[in-house]
Amino acid sequence: MKRKVLILASWYPGETSPVSGIFIQDQAVVLSRKYDVRVLVPKPIGWREVLKGRAGPKSHIEQRAGLTVYREQELIYKPRILAQVYEIYHRMTGHHPEIYRNVEDIIYAWYFDSYDRAAKRGFEAILATWGKPDIIHAHVVLPGGWAAANLGKRYGVPVVLTEHSGPFSVHLQTHYQRYLVRATFLQVNHVIAVSPALLQQIQAVQDPISASVIGEVVKTEFFGVSEDKTEQLSGSLTRFLSIALLTEVKGLIYLLEAAKLLVQRGVLSFELIIGGDGPERPRLEQMARASGLSDQCRFLGLLTPLEVRNWIQRCNVFVMPSLHESFCIALCEAMACGKPVISTRCGGPEHTVTPDTGILVEVANPEALADAMERFILGKVKYDPYRIRQSVRDRFGEEAFLRNISRVYEEVVDDMPPKVRQEL
Fold this sequence. Notes:
The chain is of the alpha/beta class. Helices cover 44% and strands 18% of the residues. An eight-stranded mixed β-sheet has the order 3-4-2-1-5-6-7-8, sandwiched between helices. α3 packs across α4 and α14 packs parallel to α15. The longest helix is centred in the N-terminal third of the chain and has 27 residues, at 103-129. The N and C termini lie close together (12 Å).
């Protein structure tokens, strides 16, 4: 009989946010090849959402990507009132409670408490309809990992936690968050980081009981080398492609600056295609126009997965100029299609990009980006597309991911006390 694995997700795709946490869904789908998988998505909601009719049902079960997903919502009870009570207490006594240092701590505590209550209620519904899971696999330390640690302790179920966040400091903004992060890592049975750089950031805060590095799953069965030569760029232009959420952390202003430098050098035989949408798009488009890149640069907007694959297969080089990445799935999807890459040394890419697959440059350095791009334009570097693809498939493809995760699952179950292990 298949082991039961419950995915507890801090982020997960839904009707209003179809790409939020899509990488968690991708992992869950691959795990379902070997395990009996269910997904629990707790969500705290505020009164404003309720009054505007945007909250939806308190409890909901749906089928998404072939998986059963339990969604549980819990109302956040006016944290501002609690914060005001805290301020009065602090002014009267001059003391801080041990784990609270300021109003932000109180607000976060109220939010995480609501999340924990939603997770507990959802877990009890799962017990009634599916039974006790053998493993709880949480994604992202706050709030999912913390709630999973509480459930694991309460019901005697081993907990695996995968951390995706980059930089990890996003979880360390308040004293209370730092307290919860450390407590979570001391309770869960095993921590998985998606890159060595991310694991180092975690260990600097709290060394987990047990930890390993397993990259994100890359859908190498979907992303592959195209044999259709008509999809390749014709003529003498070199097509560079970058696909990302258009936010400041993606570093696309430095990519545009690099393109401007190439034009100033008289290197004009290239095209820069930028896919994706986000808050930085108007600024980037205006910058491209002001830099005289209208002939070289094109913005595609939001793309479907099929469109992403098609554009990757039609480019010559994929470029990722991020300021920080914990892994960068888009980079690996391009490599799965056999495309060489240019990426910054921003955390995750140092783990995924090798001399056989592309070039790494320093963060926020348009000159280095331009130099790397020029090497491709002038034909000074050559790569084997099938060797690039093999590098990704062997390390991060579906079967590699399933094999690596299965090893962790077996270890955490074997390490459970004999009595608990028999119950599982």
